[in-house]
């Protein structure tokens, strides 16, 4: 495998190597060999030109239909216009002051053309594209190279079109194919009918037909699935070897007292998940469990029972929340649920109770000192807070359980710093309200055992969701505000959600958006510029003066001071405001049962899962919930199709699949694994469930028998190649 670590400059020269590194992050021979074609075309099979997107870098296979040399008016120079076709649609190519190209760009010839799709006079065109003619005229080298087999089209850059990349790959295959090792055990390859890796790499780059291409990709899918699952299996094995203090519930203590006071019975799902968690807590190695649940399924209650079980053993539990709003909400709801059980040592407090400390960055000095003292002394059996819990001065008497809410919002270092505050590794419970498809859980959270809560507690009302096409049917938006007034008239409350805060200066070029503000999804029709997203401050003012005049309208957003945010949420929860106009700061954890209606403005600018999370803030009481998705996008657009999907189901797992299908899997997995580019190029976490599940089982068996992979040196090398420093650090810290 050492030869595959050779820098590309040794193979292709300094200049090309720099382009490969800068544009495509390809630095070694191995990187290049594992840069697979995005798709393949057959000679004579032209690219469908009507599917090209404006601003996309494309490589198309088309036939030249017409060539015109047009002089500029009133000045020197000319432009060469070439029209290419797939037989149905046409695409213009334009070259400036390059009339000499007429000699080779002649009608009837066929070629690969690469460039960025632009618009001119409402027609798509490529300006000064790179091209390679591939017909048999004049003994074309490309025609000879591609004769009799599929033509690979690679993910390329503006500086290096696909066919030049293909030449680099050919050089790597010719010189280094014999150096390719074999990471998969022979018995595994035999059992699953997998070809050797060297053969797979040759066939994925040089397939003669679709059968060869699929044989290659099947083997490469297995490599990606198996090597990653081996890494996760090693992590699980290492975790199981760590010592931890068993935390078995103690009868007659605070957990039993809490259960007796619950005004409702647990759902079957909650009982099942609690049993799984309690079984993990009773073992002598740290629990590593992912708790995912539908919006409103009662994850916080399950987590609280786990924390109380740890408190009963003399230990402490900590709940880490991503925002101050959510931390304060958790603190309020947990203290409310526990009553005098949360007031140990206070007048009227229970003798068997504990204290619930809150620690956030905005707390006053006196409150902060009190919380720190309660945590360090052990008086606070439960601590709830934000990143402030991670600071060095925060200490615990006996940290036994760490609960991380909305895990994807925390970095590895933050979780690790909190877990390090225990004398022995504490148990870990990761919670997410974003349902995750099973294969994604196996791939992204493969070192965690998974529990799923998909049953809503009795008494929760259904949420009806409707799309409001504001541009096509303005009267629908008028009716939406009438519905808000009707709900307020019944004594209920409403949310209005906007994508932006408002009154911002335009962000400097290259400056990142605030995390609270979502990425824009979709664009204007025919490449037209869209208006800026609607903003909280402007919308609140317009509503208070217009359709919601006379109602008590408040605003909530991430730029407000923490005490101001907390004050607004307290007053809204107490019913002192009718309508809360907010950003996605309310997305997770906010619980106001009296809120029955939510209007999401510019709903198409939010992701599918985010919309599902947002609407989960209504219908949390006995009255039915209503969510209205307001959008200007036309009925036939992809953006409206997303909104229709959200309106059509309350199944978060079904919506999470749609969400993942609409985003690039590699981005999702890369961020979840390590924050760097994903290793998955061929494997699809949605389509390859059987491969992932089988690879997980095979990897677990292999690691159980040979934890250090001593009998599999080439697999160990492949693992080291996968686990760059960042990714290895992620898996180490879990």
Automatic annotation (TrEMBL):
Helicase C-terminal domain mapped to chain residues: 476-661
Annotated Gene3D superfamilies: Nucleic acid-binding proteins, P-loop containing nucleotide triphosphate hydrolases
InterPro entries noted in UniProt: ATP-dep_DNA_helicase_RecG, DEAD/DEAH_box_helicase_dom, Helicase_ATP-bd, Helicase_C-like, NA-bd_OB-fold, P-loop_NTPase, RecG/Mfd, RecG_dom3_C
Glycoprotein as UniProt keyword: no
Assigned keywords, A-Z: ATP-binding, DNA damage, DNA recombination, DNA repair, DNA-binding, Helicase, Hydrolase, Isomerase, Nucleotide-binding
PROSITE patterns documented for this protein: HELICASE_ATP_BIND_1, HELICASE_CTER
SMART domains: DEXDc (SM00487), HELICc (SM00490)
One Gene Ontology term of the molecular function aspect: DNA helicase activity
EC id: 5.6.2.4
Entry-linked CDD domains: DEXHc_RecG, RecG_wedge_OBF
UniProt-annotated stretches for the region Disordered: 505-531
Top-level division of the source organism's lineage: Bacteria
Helicase ATP-binding domain span: 280-453
Pfam families: DEAD (PF00270), Helicase_C (PF00271), RecG_dom3_C (PF19833), RecG_wedge (PF17191)
Catalyzed chemical reaction(s): ATP + H2O = ADP + phosphate + H(+); Couples ATP hydrolysis with the unwinding of duplex DNA by translocating in the 3'-5' direction
PANTHER family (alphabetical): ATP-DEPENDENT DNA HELICASE HOMOLOG RECG, CHLOROPLASTIC (PTHR47964:SF1)
Function in brief: Plays a critical role in recombination and DNA repair. Helps process Holliday junction intermediates to mature products by catalyzing branch migration. Has replication fork regression activity, unwinds stalled or blocked replication forks to make a HJ that can be resolved. Has a DNA unwinding activity characteristic of a DNA helicase with 3'-5' polarity.
Record family assignment: Belongs to the helicase family. RecG subfamily.
Protein name: ATP-dependent DNA helicase RecG
Originating organism: Kitasatospora phosalacinea
